[in-house]
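Pinned message: reference record for Nucleotidyl transferase domain-containing protein
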Amino acid sequence: MKAVILAGGYGTRISEETDLKPKPMIEIGGMPVLWHIMKLYSFYGINEFIICCGYKGYLIKEYFSNYFIHRSDVTIDLGENSVEIHKKLSEPWKVTLVDTGQDTMTGGRLKRISSYVEKEDCFCMTYGDGLADVNISNLIESHRNKGLQATLTATHLPGRFGILDTPHGIVQA
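Predicted structure (tokens):
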């Protein structure tokens, strides 16, 4: 089972952060949102990821290219051009990073990574800028039991600015 993560949006509503990095790389607790999403999927046994890169995707590629060295204790001997790894902190993840275009919409991004999931009977897809408390195993089981082509998980959020209850069109105190 693979998880596809859309990580290509501009993040215009939080430009003070996204001028420097893509939304999935904004940190929560010292780690990028993307990492937290991947930890959730990994908890449910999904450790193969396809990340659809777009805006500032090179920063996501650099993050994973240097992940091992950043998460480990190392000694770097510049004179000998060698690196000694002392304490390894790694994840059991296989990460495929695909440049799906800077202005590509969701469907186009999925089309561009289709060759990476074409042999899968089922795969998960999520956005790279949000976290949720979802039981992925239950979600996949429900999807398979119903025999559907796609399953969407969503939540009903409370109104952004409160709710005005007007029974019969009349506001009451």
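Pinned by admin. Summary line: Residues 2-169 form a domain with the Spore Coat Polysaccharide Biosynthesis Protein SpsA; Chain A fold (CATH 3.90.550.10).
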